[in-house]
Amino acid sequence: MEILRCENLSKIYGEGTIRTHALRNLSFSVEKGEFVSIVGPSGSGKSTLLHIMGGVDKPTCGKVYIDGTDIHGLKEDKLAIFRRRQIGLIYQFYNLLPMLNVDENIGLPHLLDGRKLDRERLNTIVDEMGLSDRRRHLPGQLSGGQQQRVSIARALYNRPAILLADEPTGNLDRSTGAEIVRLLKEANRTWKQTLLLITHDENIALQADRMLCIEDGEITRDERIRSLGGDVL
Amino acid sequence: MRNAVVYKVTWKHMKMNKRRTCITFLGIFLMVLLLTCVFSGRETAVNYLQNVGSQVKGKWHVSMYNMTENELKKIEELGYVKETGRSVDYGFTRFSASENPERPYLFVKSYEAPLFDWMNITLKEGRLPEKKGEIVISQKAIEEGAKVSVGDTFEAEYFERTVTGIQEGVTSIFPFSSLKLEYGETKKVSQEFPFYEENNSFRVDKSYTGKREELTVAGIIESPVFEQEGAAGYMAFTCYDEKWDGSVNVMGIMDLKSVKGDLYEDFRKIAGDREVELNNYVLSFSGDSSDSVVNFITQVMTVFFLAVIVTAAIILIYNVFNISFEERSRYLGMLCSVGATGRQKRSSVYFEAFSLFLPALPLGILAGLLMIFLGMHLLLPFIYSLTSVWAVLPERLPVHLVISWKILLFITIGSGLTVFLSALLPAVKISRIGPVECIRGNLEKGGEALRRRKKNYLNTSAEKMLADNSLKYQRRKTRGMVRAAALFMIILTVVLSSGQLVTKLIYYRMVDTNTINIEHDGWDYFVTEYGGNLEKYREMKKEIMSDTGVKKVCEEYTGMFIGNIPKKVLSREYQKALHRVYNLYYHRELSEEEFREMSGEGTAVMNFIAVDEEIFEEIAEASDTDIELLKDTDIPPAIVVQSGEVSTENWRVYGMEAEKYEFYEIGQMTDLKKGESIPLTVYSPDEDRQVEFPLCIAGYADNEQLEGYFSFHSETLWVIISLETGSQIEEIMRNHGNPEDSYGLEHTLYLHMNGKDTGLLSKLGMLAEEENSGLILGEVKASETLPKAINSIILILLICFILLTSIICLLNLYNSIHGWIVEQKVYFAMLVSVGMTQRQIRRMLLYEAGYILARSCIWTVFIGTPLILGVKKCLINRFGYVQADFPWGIYLMAAVLDVIAIFGFMLYHYTREKNYDLRTVFMV
Fold first, then answer.
1. Which of A165, A229, B443, B543 could join A90 via S-S bond, C-beta 3.0 to 4.6 A?
2. In the predicted model, what is the mean pLDDT of residues B366-381?
């Protein structure tokens, strides 16, 4: 079942002589529960693609459908609500709010939805992420790996349709990075969570079901590595 | 040189943050502007008023007549007399060139050189006299047809004029010359005395002094302001003859700062019983005189304004540096990591402050001067309408800005010091922070508090949780915003409430005590009969009532000092105030017994005003009066005026001088209750005894309730009664056996005309002009009284001042909130990325604004209230007691303005800054 579809996405920055094509007429789709890694050199348009898919940036032209919804056709507030319910974003620099503790950061999208926090879910996710003894800590009191785990927990808490991770291990040492990828993969497997992950690390990229290579704003390679069942092809 | 790179980096930082730099500049500029307005404005206004004052009588301070050379020396020996000048009145001489038969003379005065300037003698043609025998003549003579020009010569034989009563049994009165002449009496007349043809009542004679000389016209001068239109001679001036051996008139100019004690007394001792005249037109506007109203106003206002301006400016500049603290610390931390010292870091803050101060100083001074100039021109029509003093001026005087080196130095040092003090604390703080903390941006201490907090926000709304935590996390910025909002409220409340008190004190200081002001609107003229001729008054009333030109008439009787009441009728509050006044006269704290003994037991006087039924009922409605009691009482009803004033000016203790001026506003003149009676007694000439005439207290009224009718400023008890009651009292006061010997009430008729000229007014006018008519005819002017007008000027100045200081405060708040929003942009982006809507962000900001508002209100209560009470206490200690309620209204108004400002700025800045690029967040 298709969960994400990008149609003819283009993104142009600047005007006149400084006009830069970040994405060029890019189209692809992702199946529900698929783990897709996106690789490519710096400045190839990976992050731009992720931002457009996450609804935090708008394409110059083209459409993004998540679970059948054209997200850029939504009004600003509707898009925000859609994002907090259907999209989980994970960033290289975690983007946690420094004034909120671990529990509050994780529960934030849910609280923003005006819903009462599901304590059971919170406890489960905190335990899963190994943050049980850090629940009252502020981000500043956590290590990089712990902060990224909080960020993943926040992204997962609402059971989004799609998880978008922009170089989540880029700021971490190798072993912590591996731990984070393990957690993401586990989420993908356990909860059938669709995952799109940008990385420079080939080892991480190869752990995905499918790998998209982007160069100069175009998909140069779309390679299936293993079947959706997890078998290496 | 060592600091060059720090300055360069700071300069770039300033250029990058143009808006903040502009606001800091604007704050410093406004502070300089306001300081210029206060100091130079004060000097310009006082100088202008002095100039205007000097146009009336001249620039001299004191004038003494018929002094000897020896006495002149004594005057010059007084330490504070700066300069003296002699003049001699040579007297009248025939002026054959005159074409005005009623002005056939010249009145010649000789002046020492400086006196021409002191007396504002302005040349129109020719030159001033330089030697004996040269004169300048008033232009007035030429305007009235005199054939005289520069270079003409004529013989002068000086004489004095005398007037002699020649008709037996007739007393001639010359009201404008203050002269009363009995039959056979001869009196010397002044230079202003008009020309009279011979008549049956008196005769004007010439008495030659024996001085003769040939006069040459050296110049024509503008008619001096003091030249009287009706005088028999034109003014002419010659130069002082050093060989003159007679008595001289001496004028002096003093160094008012050196005056110690009573200067009038010093001159009086020298002059004995000869005339000593102080030029109060000039002295009263001299800011350095010992106790003038203007002095009082300027001193109080200067200190008050100065304190507010400096506080507002310090907090604005301090806040600006505090807001940019983190940002500044980042680049300074980098500099620090490559070896910049703490001193160099401090110099960055000072560099920023003073590089803005340097251009702000001249620009602020120039703008301040421009504002004074424009302000003076705006206020001039108002100043000119104040009093009749200005009416004698030929034309409006030009405004000259006063900006001395002393003032410039004061403004420069004052504003420089303010800028330095504002930058001092941020500079010291920044120099103490190490490079690692700077670079990490780990400066906010709010994290500590959040780590310690017990509260978990998981059960509250996300907006509230975020707002609360943001405010706690970024404590420095939160405090900056609270400080800015609180300052705005504190300044508004303190300035407004203190201004209200100051204007009230000035009003009471200036208002004539022992008076009531009639404020009847809608009436055109009044006729007051004060001679006790009741029959004549009734005749006149009948005539006025039947006149077709009169639309409406209302009647009023005033009885001053007509009744006696026991002193115990007067309230405890009144007695206490009087006790304090006595303390000031006796220069010590009198015991209760001593006070009672000195003020005397027994009776006090009581006054009344009787109004017609319609007005009586209106007043009863407007005041705290029991209408039932008013209509249904056995004894005549009265409304007691509870407003009163006791001061060292309206209460004199015979033969004693009060230690200082003090004033007490009385809110309750009597403690008697409604329904109780005032045991009034009135003297009856028929019975030659005090006759009891008790009045029933139907209600109370104060000046506020009586607005539009009367305003009472008296140390005695006043009651308002009906005309019927007034007539009954008058009946007791009449001497029926000898009506001419009656003393009675003042009867006033207010006329509202219908525009038809029936000749009534001219008839009444002629009647009033008759000698001993006992009548006054006047216009009920809607124009403001002097104290009210001065109060209005102060109010205008106060509003201007509040507006300008409010701009500083609002800039501060604007800047603080802008800084907050800019710093929060990264969090907004994070929040949007996790799905927070714009509406939710706005709601979060409103929570934050609410918190800032609440905190600023608390600070206002804790700082503003003691300040208000302190200012009130200081003013009351210095000038006396006035009734002033706690300014709840002002608090409310300030809070409303604060709400508008905080919420407005918060939403405005967010709307402006909300188009943040979300991608920037992820690049961090």
1. A165
2. 85
Which range of residues forms the domain containing residue B526? 515-571+605-644+675-784
- Whether residue A196 contacts residue A50, with contact meaning beta carbons closer than 8 Å, is answered with yes
Rounded to whole angstroms, how far apart are CA atoms A51 and A42? 15
What is residue B797's predicted lDDT score, i.e. its pLDDT? 75
Please give the structure tokens belonging to residue B528.
């007051």
Mean pLDDT, rounded, for B547-574: 87
Contact A56 B832 (CB under 8 A): yes
Q: Across the interface, which of A47, A95, A109 has its CB nearest the CB of B835?
A: A109
Q: What value does the mean pLDDT of chain A take?
A: 87
Same domain, B34 and B79: no
A44, A216 in Cβ contact below 8 A?
yes
The CATH number that applies at residue A43 is 3.40.50.300
Residue type, B138: S
> pLDDT tens digit string along B721-752?
998 999 888 888 887 777 666 667 888 888 88
User: Is the CB of A141 less than 8 angstroms away from the CB of B833?
Assistant: no
In chain B, % helix, strand, coil (3-state, to 5) comes to: 50, 20, 30
pLDDT digits (tens, 9 = 90+) for B479-512: 889 988 998 999 889 888 888 887 777 777 666 5
Specify the 3-state DSSP secondary structure of B740: helix
Element housing B746 (H / E): strand B746-753
End-of-domain residue from the set B241, B258, B274: B274
Same domain, B759 and B846: no
Whether A108 and B921 lie within 8 Å, measured CB to CB: no
CA distance B430 to chain A (A): 22
B251-to-A148, B49, B118, B141 alpha-carbon distances in Å: 93, 21, 9, 27
Minimum-distance CB partner of B447 among A84, A103, A138: A138
**What is the spatial distance between Cα B79 and Cα B84, in angstroms, rounded to a whole number?**
12
Contacts of A87 in chain B (CB under 8 A): 835
Signed CA dihedral, B514, B517, B518, B524: sign only: positive
Looking at the fold, whether B547 and B626 belong to one and the same domain comes out as yes
Minimal Cα distance from B460: which residue of A? A111
Identity of the residue in A77, A100, A103 whose CB atom sits nearest the CB atom of B838: A77
Most confident option among B549-563, B706-720, B835-849: B835-849
Average pLDDT, chain B: 81
Is the pLDDT at B394 greater than 80, yes or no?
no
Say how far residue B423 (Cα) sits from the centre of its chain: 36
Could you say which residues of chain A have pLDDT below 70?
227-233
- B755-789 burial: b if 16+ Cβ within 10 Å, else e: eeeeebbeebeeebeeeebbbebeebeeeebebeb
Contact A99 B446 (CB under 8 A): yes
* A39 phi/psi in degrees, rounded to 5: -125, 165
- Tell me the two tokens of residue B831: 């929040």
pLDDT for B664-714, tens place per residue? 889 899 999 988 989 999 988 888 888 999 999 999 999 888 887 888 888
| DSSP notation for B810-848 | HHHHHHHHHHHHHHHHHHHHHHHHTT--HHHHHHHHHHH
Range of the domain at A215: 2-224
| Any domain includes A92 | yes
- Please report, for residues B90, B106, B249, B695, the alpha-carbon distance to residue B112 in angstroms, rounded to integers and kept in the order given: 14, 19, 11, 66
Local structure of B371: helix, strand or coil: helix
CB contact set of B10 (below 8 Å; sequence gap of 6+): B348, B351, B352
Residue of A nearest to B922 (CA): A91
Chain A CB within 8 Å of residue B916 CB: no
Percent of residues, chain A, with pLDDT higher than 90: 25
Closest chain B CA to residue A114? B461
